[in-house]
Amino acid sequence: MNTFTKVSPYANEPFTNFGLEENVKAMQAAIAKVKSELGREYPLYIGTEKVVTEAKITSINPGNVDEIIGFVSKADQKLAEKAMNVALETFETWKKVPARERAEYLFKAAALMRDRKHEFSALMILESGKNYVEADVDTAEAIDFIEFYAREMIRLSQINETQPLAKIPGENNQISYIPLGVGVIIPPWNFPLAICVGMTIAAVVSGNTVLLKPASTTPVIAHKFVALMEEVGLPAGVINFIPGSGAEVGDYLTTHPKTRFISFTGSKEIGLRINKLAADVAPGQIWIKRVIAEMGGKDGIVVDETADLDAAASAIVASAFGFQGQKCSAGSRAIIVESVYDIVVDKVVALTNQLQSGLPEHNFAAGPVIDKGSYDKILDYIEIGKTEGTLLAGGDKAEGNGYYIQPTVFGDVSGKARVMQEEIFGPVLAIAKAKDWKEAIAMYNDTEFGLTGSYFSTNEERISEALDTVHCGNLYINRKCTGALVGVHPFGGFNMSGTDSKAGGYDYLMLLTQAKLTSRKI
User: Fold this and answer.
1) Is 54 exposed, middle or buried (CB count within 10 Å of its CB: 0-12, 13-18, 19+)?
2) Which of 328, 423, 472, 481 is flagged as catalytic?
3) Are β-strands 64-73 and 40-42 bridged in parallel, bridged antiparallel, or unpaired?
4) Which of 62, 224, 506, 517 is most buried per CB count within 10 Å?
5) Active site residue 472
6) Under a CB-based contact definition with an 8 Å cutoff, are residues 486 and 12 in contact?
């Protein structure tokens, strides 16, 4: 008989208080441990095999480009096909494992990750350039996803008891949520643990098997997660770890006739490409592939003249520059009513100028951006911004042996300017002036995206209208537009921000399952 973990009510994982010296020392010790393991080689996971390839992805520290995090074996199409066959074979047994038993692997994984929390965070600090708080929050969110989706699968498996169908005489009717099949998981680099874990775990606990293709800039932290799932005893072949080129491996698996679903988080351009490729039915394909896509945003904070202006300015800076603005939820736009525009802008600039750049392992507020491509793109946008608005802070490279850019603020920017319309994904904030609160909301809505937004006001009638008319998947009132919590703020956006998948919400696992109705005459 299986002995299952007692399931307590879901609660979010607490964040670490780095105001306490013992927590700072614990993180420093974890960083030292991770540094002692740098430069190792990491294999692919294909079923029971650990495959080492000649071709490697070299993961580097974006805050110190001379430091190599690790060398990760790189899959090609032949290995991707092998992984697909293993995943297909494993699916036939994994789909029959009861939901409560699948969830048990997750509870064990959450406990183990919690025990090694700083170690996971330390690796992210070095591989992705997060400071202590950003890395700690990422690891906490990963634990949250594991805990939340485990409970969600148990709930769905008990749906006939907790939410029974209407009864009619002479029939027994039940509904069950069964897995889809083999899925391709393509997570981003900016939440290299949390989103990677969340996308993968949701698919696995639902009874699917997966091919995990991590981001090429952060493959080592993804490997650490896969190794942890092996450690807790997850059957080989449920998660197959196949880092590789998007153009070679990603496209091949997206168009594969046996791929049942693609779960993607990343740029609008790649998301649209995946959606287009997945829409074509390949020879031998007998289903319409599902695409779950979260594709970014051009998020904004609206401030009217009744708002708490200090709170608004703090939220604007935190939303714009947390993790160097490299969040799809980042508040890269601020739209301020003209009567308080100058006051808020002065406060924003003062707070921005307090942000110091430096090595994430030394816990500076502003670290590097992820790689050379992002670095060059962001600097190009800063030059564009100089022609579209008034440079108020930053505007140049920052010192350091990595991809450091000064937190940059532009004021007096038109709502139609490129820096107000295009996703920059870096430490660049554009501020526009609106004549009144209604124009400010209209300016916020004037975007092809629709992920997160904030409205700062103390006027209840205006707040009520904002709740109805601000068009985004996650709208916050009088708080920053970043920092969604699993189970508290289900996350996903409208328009070109994706399929509004609501990760960390009570309907998310339905995207990874199919509802089967069984009706029996009695």
Assistant:
1) exposed
2) 328
3) parallel
4) 62
5) no
6) yes
